[in-house]
């Protein structure tokens, strides 16, 4: 039913990370509140996580026809996922190569060609530059080097579309490094994902850091006091999470009634985020709802409405928790090693990825933005490179402890 597909969309990480193996009798300190309130820390997360991690974006069923495209915005990176005439999937930054105007101004559409209305530059469905008015007169202009900025795309076994914003010819992190086997989970064999069609989507904005929502999603310790609908879908008493590499798998034992009604959930959470546009103190949740073609309207509405209630309830929890974090009274709490294993694992992954990237920046004595495009070789880029170096020199300084911004 619909929950399987709904809950496929979630979170993951760069390397295999494990929470310290402590006794179930000992609580574990969570990340400090500064990690949920600091703009500088969020900027580092943008470089360390969202610039180079694989992110689950949508399903191929949302783009059935050549020229179909959908726009997404994650951590300030606006990009589109599209399908060309050969049914190949592409992703591009929404940036014209001429003067950085957005090529795609709607939220979704179907196009024969991608055209920028600022100066009329146009691109094929494969992102290659098709036309640059008046530039045919310039001898030194390389048309092949001025297509849309491409983004790495991976289509998994079940038809889900993933992207990686790393600007390298090959991403530093391969999809298999974090997610090998995620699309062939034994429990997914009961579902035929081709039987699901896109029904609708909706967005909500919440005044909280993106990690608050991740922490909340990955435990059901709060379910008895907040979500009266959850027992319909899952047995709260048997809820557990399994952690591996870049994902957190939720599971619980089905009751006989749940099994008879087909109401079990196959829920997996991927790091860092699949349906959110992340900001330091507010998050925009983007929910994509698919339904089984054989589902009755009654069954579908039961699940869809229940899910909408649950995420609305979570929004309230996250906003009120963030409000108290912003007050600078609370540093961190002690989490239950079993009941809150999910958020502890998520936080351990985030800590490792962020610290590792920060150490690289200290050695390089500069910010490292994996998604940023490098200047091309050639005499024409020399002045631009010098301009960049001047700006970087103004933006940072070093001391005996390393890089300071």
Automatic annotation (TrEMBL):
Pathway membership, UniProt: Amine and polyamine biosynthesis; betaine biosynthesis via choline pathway; betaine aldehyde from choline (monooxygenase route): step 1/1
This protein's record includes keyword Oxidoreductase: yes
Record's keyword terms, sorted: 2Fe-2S, Iron, Iron-sulfur, Metal-binding, Oxidoreductase
Alphabetized InterPro entries for the sequence: Rieske_2Fe-2S, Rieske_2Fe-2S_sf, Ring_hydroxy_dOase_asu_C_dom, Rng_hydr_dOase-A
Role of this protein: Catalyzes the first step of the osmoprotectant glycine betaine synthesis.
Family (UniProt): Belongs to the choline monooxygenase family.
Entry protein name: Choline monooxygenase, chloroplastic
